[in-house]
Amino acid sequence: MDSQSVRSLALYSSAGLVVAYCVNKLLNSKTNLPYPPGPRPLPILGNSRQIPASSPWFTYHEWAQQYGPIVHLKAIGEHILVINSAKVADDLLEKRSNIYSDRPDIPMIQLMGWDFNIGFMKYGDKWRKYRRLMHHLAAAIMMASVYGYDIQPVNDSFVSLVRAAVERLGESVFPGAVAVNKFPWLRHFPGWLPGFGFQKFCADTRVINTRMKEVPYEFAKHNMLEGTDTTSVVARILISGKHDDNVELIQGVAGLAFAAGADTTVSAISTFFMAMALYPEVQAKAQRELTAVVGAHRLPEISDRQRLPYVDAVYREVLRWRPVLPLSVSHATSKDDVYDGYFIPKGTQVVANIWSMCHDESIYAEPDKFKPERFLDDDGGLVNDPRMNILAYGHGRRICVGRHMADETVWAVIASVLHVYEIGKVKDLSGNDIDIVVRFSGGIVSHPEPFPCSITPRSENEKQLVEGTIAAVYDI
């Protein structure tokens, strides 16, 4: 064999090896795996026209019945994975949290001034810094402890600020909700152009968010300097001097502590009142347990909780029946992944459909009914079933940092109200019950729409107990 033939053979052999290597890589590449099933996307737009701007969890739940526990969507080239199963959420968001703990880029968050919110921060140093301080503030979920401020019973200005800010947030973060989230360069166009009204919306929201952070902070700072407040969390941080060089951090974390605690807590408690008016037999059963365990001369305390399993079941059912956050804040994959034979690319938005998980008929029979008994075993104790864990506080490394305080706060309110009040339907002039329509808002925090109900002391003894507690708290 001459040298030319040897060179040709070597060349062909090398080319063959390269081709074989490429074919092998192609055959074994996980990108050859299919995406999870989902509705057929349209060219360019994908599924964006099929995703509702309000209450998308209902549509996701319907798709789950057709396509299974994970549903893949595309919105103008963006991959979205909707998780409708508690098991899949545990498999991915908990067990693979190293991959599923990032957040997607949502330009509207920065444009509206919500980028101080730890829930939307990218996984990194800034998130860790905020998370550390949030843990420090977790013992202060309400204004009285965060800022030393007592909320007014009606039309409180601080509460109104929070409600306005959160409502605007809910209108802007769902996948496909706003075009600028997919095309960030749109932010550079002036707001007076047709179709660019989001610019004014964002500017107005930034003003609201700035006030939400600065006004209560200045209130607490003023009281600290006057010597009238040394116990609120903000006052203690200012006195310690540990964060003198980072006022923005204190304002952001403290503002977020109140925004997260106030709006979600109000929603959960409002849902509780609706459920008690609709299910008087549940209310009566919980009240019998409270009377037997607590007695008539004091309010229930956290130390009573283990001896009040039915009340605890009522609390759990409130969070399951109508979840405060029907959809989790979107996670994002930090690298490619494969699950159950399906390919999930890096950068995929991952949304946990909490509403669907809480209405899974394979776990919760008759999910639309309010039945605390589903959380109790045959002996009347709380069931030990991981499938029925409380899902309201999120998953993995992104789980709510204030969940323990939120849990105790909502439970304590539910137990105390049940102990001293009777909640019922309002009667019309003819003495007939006025029906309550179960209808909830469709934003990021889902609130019951306004409904009528009556709230009366269970007896003269309970009335005196409430009046005595108020007098002790307010020193009157």
Helical/strand content category = alpha+beta
Question: Ends: how far apart?
Answer: 110 Å
Q: What amount of the residues lies in strands?
A: 5-15%
Q: Order of strands in the sheet with the most strands?
A: 1-2-6-3
Extract low-pLDDT stretches: 5-29, 134-146
Rg: 27 Å
Q: What's the order of the H and E elements? A: HHEEHHHHHHHHHHHEEEEHHEEH
Keywords: Heme, Iron, Metal-binding, Monooxygenase, Oxidoreductase
Protein name: Cytochrome P450
InterPro entries: Cyt_P450, Cyt_P450_E_grp-I, Cyt_P450_sf, Cytochrome_P450_fung
Family: Belongs to the cytochrome P450 family.
What labels describe this entry?
alpha+beta; single chain; two-stranded antiparallel sheet; 476 residues; 8 strands; globular; 4-stranded mixed β-sheet; 16 helices
